[in-house]
Amino acid sequence: MLTGDKAMTTMTRSGGVEPLARVRAVAAWPFTNRYASPIWFALRLYLGWIFFQFGWRKLEAGWLTSDPMGTVIGQIADGKLKVGFAPFRDFCAFLVDAGLTPLLSQSMPFLELAVALSLVTGILVVPAAIGASILLVNFMLSGIGTLAFEGRLLLGLVLLMVAYRVVSVIGFQALALRIVAAVAARTNLTLPAPLAQAMRR
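User: That's the sequence. What structure does it adopt?
Assistant: Structure tokens below.
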């Protein structure tokens, strides 16, 4: 009869706990292991290229001198375009009343290009993914975006956020952090705690 630690070890090996731990380890591998970084680099390039096209095409279409978002947001606020989430209509009405739609239209190309730059270079990927996710959710709520396309992009961005430990292994974030550290040392600048912690990794 087995007792104590030997019994526990035997139960662990035969009772399915160890296989479950192995499954968890395999599932976590792409999100925690540096050798999985090429996967995330490829996904970053794919999403970055799409957001670059989003921003560049808006620039070519004259978004800097017009208000395309205002037209859509105004129709949502007036009830001409139906949305599945009622509070979103109130939010659109607020944007129209506050006169913020031209600012949204003119800043949208730069926001999308900034997301593309972040994803391609690997600098501030997680903040960029969060911002891009907010944009996509608003597109889908407004009816401009579709679950088939924007939903797929959103899934990719969420995966990048989950893989925050290794998502920027391939890229220029380490170089950017060294430059910031050097500037901070020369100017006696106190860096925010999260940024200082990232530099020590």
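The two ends are 49 Å apart (CA to CA).
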